[in-house]
Amino acid sequence: MDEQFILRVSPSVAEQIERLMNESAAGSSSNPDDASLDLSFSEDGRSGTFMIGNQRFPASLLDLPTVVESYKTYDDSFLVKTADIGQMVMVREEDDPAPEGAEYEHGLTPPMRDARRRRFRREPDLNAELVHRVEKDLISIMQGVPTRMLV
After folding, report:
1. Which residues belong to any copy of the TAFII55 protein conserved region domain (predicted)?
2. pLDDT digit string, tens, across residues 11-33
3. Which residues of the chain have pLDDT under 70?
4. Which of 33, 105, 148, 150 shows the greatest Cβ crowding within 10 Å of its Cβ?
5. Helix, strand, coil % over all residues of the chain, rounded to 5
6. Distance CA 115, CA 8 (A)
7. Beta strands in 53-146 (DSSP E)
């Protein structure tokens, strides 16, 4: 299986990447510095910099709310699964705010907007005092100490 991730960029950055790929495919790149792409992350592993030539853009590594499968085909008839993708690199413009948290709250398509809140079970509300009391009772039972009945 290949290692894959989603690269989400703004339309202006997408145009620059497309132009760069077309020039490199045609072999007409005049300056090798203009034809370079680089992605580097800081110590935290979640924030970094995406470079196209001499231009820098802030980037963030985000977890997707669901796993996305990717497929490829060799003969336009049969699809072969190549990877399960669980992360996305989001490249932003300088003035765009950084996303909050390590998880992207939306999926990749409009129907998955706010997917975590709308489609998945919420965590139950637990009383911390009750959990602590049950934990103490379980430890007592494992140690063989008689305990009061749980009600």
Report:
1. 1-146
2. 888 998 898 888 877 776 556 55
3. 1-2, 28-35, 147-151
4. 105
5. 25, 30, 45
6. 18
7. 55-73, 79-91
